[in-house]
Amino acid sequence: MKNRIKEIRDKKGITQTDLAQLTGLSVGYICHLERGSRTNPSYNTMVIISKALNADVAVVFELQ
Hints:
Elements: H1 5-11, H2 16-23, H3 27-35, H4 43-52, H5 57-60
């Protein structure tokens, strides 16, 4: 699954550490999602990240 976490995060000036604190997820997990080495986050995780980025789930995770 492709995602735009890094792109959106960078545009908003949010670090991985900031995003981790906003979501309650680990920095390592966010890093893995951004690199694509973790490709199957739960829907709940996708919602949490999207809310923290103030963006739609379908946009962040490129859902069809």
